Amino acid sequence: MKIPARCPRANCYAERFVGTVRRELTDRLLIINERHLMSVLNRYVSHYNHRRPHRARHHTPPRPDHPTGGPGCTSVRRRRVLGGLINEYEPAAA
Predict the structure, then answer these.
(1) How many CA atoms lie within 13 A of 68 on its CB side?
(2) Measuring CA to CA, how many Å separate 90 from each of 15, 36, 54, 61?
(3) CA triplet 68, 74, 78: central angle to 5 degrees?
(4) Which residues are bridge partners to 86 per DSSP?
(5) How many helices and strands, by DSSP H and E, does the chain display?
(6) Mind listing the pLDDT tens digit for each residue in 39-85?
(7) Tens digit of pLDDT for each residue in 23-38?
(8) Please, what's the b/e burial string for 52-62 (b: 16 or more CB within 10 A of its CB; e: otherwise)?
(9) How far apart (Å, rounded) are the C-alpha atoms in residues 6 and 9?
(10) Torsion of the alpha carbons at 76, 81, 87 and 91, rounded to the nearest 10
């Protein structure tokens, strides 16, 4: 079944993801060529699916590959993604 053009409710999940990618990534980054675009998108998709907190999940990542900090966590380590465009945070070892 084909999705009608300019109809965001037809496929709301895809529209939401595309909007998020535009706001958080491509509006802030100069894309040089298709290879660069694919490399940046692959890294962002990995960040989005594994590390980015989602409001619908009470600010927890969908598939965390690292432990998330609890309320008593006092030290945090920052990891830069995509040259510092995005930052990922995780509890530091005590």
Answers:
(1) 13
(2) 29, 27, 16, 12
(3) 60
(4) 81
(5) 2, 2
(6) 999 988 888 887 777 666 666 666 666 666 566 667 878 888 888 88
(7) 888 888 888 999 999 9
(8) beeeeeeeebe
(9) 9
(10) -20
